[in-house]
Amino acid sequence: MNSVVLISNLKRIAIFFLKGLITLGLFIYFSQSIVREYKTAKFARLNSLLPSFDYFIKTVEEGGRFEPAALKHYRDYFKQVTKTIEGRADAYGMLGFCEYYLGNIPQAIAAHQKAIKIKPDFFWFHYNLGMIYYKNNQYPEAVESFTKAIETNLDINFKFMANSKIYLDILTAVPSSEVLTDKIKTGYRDGFTMLVLSEYRLKNYSELIHLGQQAMSLRLGNEEFFLYYIGLALFRLNRYSQAVLFLNEALKINRESPDALYQLGLSLRALGKEEAAQNFISQSERLFKINGTYFKMIDSMDLRAY
Fold this sequence. Notes:
By secondary structure, the protein is an all-alpha fold. It has a domain of 49 residues. It has 16 helices and no strands. The radius of gyration is 30 Å and the shape is elongated. About 3% of the residues have low confidence.
């Protein structure tokens, strides 16, 4: 009798556990179904926001100004990508780009910082963050960002863009890998340019000279600019004879550079050559009205999408 009761109890226990397992299995199945449906809904929401990049590409390529309403649409899309898919550094970078041009500077900085945290070795994240800092007169932070930008590896930048759906969509405007290479190399040149300017603002003249010489050794272009700023830094360090040498080299590239002519005049004046100094200063004053200055040129530089 006891054995019959024992078997009966065991059967009840087995049925109880079996029901529990079935209930647990059903719970897991329906939970997964809910998660799948939630993810499907999120991706459907994302796809509904997917914009055409034609306007975005056209505006970037032509260096035009974005219409706020259109830019907000791109901003909302990139923001939704960051919410839907974790770890999308490309989306954070483009989100920061849009926020900047919408005038939302703190949000632009935050988005770029998140992009860098995910992908710390991508050139454009550091470059654009450095540009924001420079425009905001935060020169030490700009130096840090531009330095990190020029230290990135060219091949890693290519690989990242090639594996990014966002960049692949946007880069349909770039006709070949050679053109893309030129764009990135121009970015490195501009990174050195902004780094030199940041060091000048901080009066770090010796570091400026080193960076200018490094940029020229890499043959990135814009040698006139680097020669001029090396000459200017040497002048600030009271090394007038050396300043004259570099400023003359800059003028060999562009005889009508008002900045170089003016600074050469000041350097010659410091060396006691007043007549020659006044001649160059007079030329520069005439050309300033026509050509402007390097700082006016830099004012036109801004964040870049690629």
